[in-house]
Design goal:
By secondary structure, the chain is mainly α. It has a domain of 138 residues: Four Helix Bundle (Hemerythrin (Met), subunit A), CATH 1.20.120. The chain has six helices and no strands. It is elongated and about 55 Å long.
């Protein structure tokens, strides 16, 4: 449904931006998220092509990737999304400072996710999942590392937003928090797809 131009203008002015500035900011974030989303789709599709054209899976001599640590890390990633969504939802409540706490907890959970992923990576290597073994291990590691890099970017953004929000909270910064909340939701969706396709035994 089309938005009333006057409503768009009022919304932009409410966050201290010109309408064109707000639109450009949102478009840039959408472009950023869309570009790597297609990359994830391509990587998962390549994995599925290998998976369903193989007679034996995992390939002979290779174990399944570690499930327990990656499963626990999945809850950490989802928890970060929940905390961010709660913070955004309460931004106009009686205690807007709760957004700062939500950013801190989300960044902490994102860091825990990365730590668990690092432990899972070491376990996978010990099990014999070496990146250079074959096409399967190459795609597996490329996908895992590609996602971890995006999580690292997200954690860095949350830490930055938390530091700025501690100084002062205004509508312009709130817009940034909302956009990075959408970013985190997106990498969560990407991770859930990766986890279900590559890690869940089937």
């Amino acid at each position: 449904m089309a938005r009333n131009p006057e409503t768009v203008n009022e919304s932009a002015q409410a966050v201290g931006l010109e309408p064109a500035d707000e639109g450009t900011t949102k478009f840039a974030m959408k472009l950023f998220m869309g570009s790597w989303t297609f990359s994830f789709v391509a990587l998962i599709a390549a994995y599925l092509v290998l998976r369903f054209n193989a007679d034996i899976w995992p390939p002979e001599g290779l174990p399944r990737p570690p499930f327990l640590l990656t499963g626990i890390s999945t809850f950490a990633a989802i928890g970060a999304s929940v905390m961010l969504q709660i913070g955004v939802a309460r931004r106009k409540g009686p205690r807007p400072e709760q957004v700062v706490s939500a950013l801190a907890f989300a960044a902490l959970l994102g860091t825990i996710f990365l730590a668990l992923q690092g432990a899972a990576a070491m376990q996978a290597i010990d099990m014999g999942l070496i990146p250079t073994r074959n096409a399967y291990t190459a795609i597996f590691w490329l996908t895992a590392v590609f996602h971890a890099v995006h999580v690292l970017v997200g954690v860095g953004a949350l830490v930055y937003l938390w530091a700025r929000a501690r100084e002062s909270m205004n509508d312009r910064r709130m817009l940034g928090i909302e956009l990075w909340t959408y970013y985190w939701h997106s990498i969560d969706v990407a991770w859930l797809a990766i986890f279900l396709v590559m890690f869940v035994p089937y």
